[in-house]
Amino acid sequence: MMCTTHTAVDPTEAGTVVPVAKRGSSGKSSGSAAEKRKAASDVHEWISFTDPTEDRTWTFDATYLMSNHRCIFSEGCQGVLDADATDMMQGCCSYGAHFVDDDDVQTVVRAFINVKPRHMQFYDTAVAKGFLDSGEPGSDGNPVTTTRLVDDACIFLNRPGFEGGPGCALHIAALETGARPLDWKPNVCWQVPMRLEHAADETGHVVSQLREWKRRDWGDGGAEFHWWCTEAPEAFSAKEPVYQSLRDEIVELIGEDIYRLLVDELERPKWTPLPHPVMRAEQR
Q: What is the C-alpha separation between 97 and 80, in angstroms, rounded?
């Protein structure tokens, strides 16, 4: 198994080297020119290694995984609207969940059987009208299945003042039964703020990349968010690093064996991880 660690500004580095036009002259630079040069932004360290059993390379955002980022729903989360929505306590549930496939849908269908009115504010609406809806067309031209919206947010989102507590009804019900919320919720709901992407080259070799969820991952609307948690210092307050606090979620995404290889690299001695850009900015 080959393992490398590197620092990159853009995680999607090119796999081949191609000739490019020169961007400078002799390579000499004056002190004043160096001072004017802008520093690289959003710098992350990445760990990559080959899969021992597949034609695949795994790439991990080590900077994010070693950070102490956490979800701060109901603890200062400002939501994903174009203005501060802290008091609304909607988290990232304002637009409903977009399902990735039928298996994803069926996970929630099975979970709903165990959801009771005490868990879910809009339970009666879900029973009467259903909790699924059709969203905008996907890449195949067919409408994407989503959760129904009620009062401009996901039907499963309990609002402030509900006796069963604010937040995701599926999450609340799962915890009450001793189940893992990730086994009851739509994929996107338990994966955010992480994102796993796969890309294959012309030979069929797959590169799988696990990183933090960026604004751009929401589509064009992400740029309009008033606030996003992976950019917010207040969300970097967990007692454990992400790779530990979200162990179950990461294992669900990449498997136990790859997770163990990842941990070996993250916990290797004599390595000082680069602090997350948000925290470096706070220290300046």
A: 13
Residue 92's pLDDT band, with cuts at 50, 70 and 90, is: very high
pLDDT digits (tens, 9 = 90+) for 44-69: 999 999 999 999 999 999 999 999 99
Strand 206-212, strand 56-61: pairing:
parallel
* Rounded CA separation 159/167 (Å): 7
How far, in Å, CA of 129 to CA of 123, rounded?
A: 10
DSSP result, 164-229 = T-SEEHHHHHHHHHT--GGGTS-HHHHHTTEEEEEEE-TT--EEEEEEEPPGGGG-GGGGG-S--G
Q: How far apart are CA 55 and CA 260, in angstroms?
A: 18
Q: What is the pLDDT of residues 106-137, one digit of tens each?
A: 999 999 999 999 999 999 999 999 999 998 88
Question: How far apart are the C-alpha atoms of 154 and 141, rounded to whole Å?
Answer: 23
- b/e code 39-62 from CB counts within 10 Å (16+ = b): eeeeebbbbbbbbeeeebbbbbbb
Q: At what angle do helices 102-112 and 169-177 cross, to 10 degrees?
A: 60
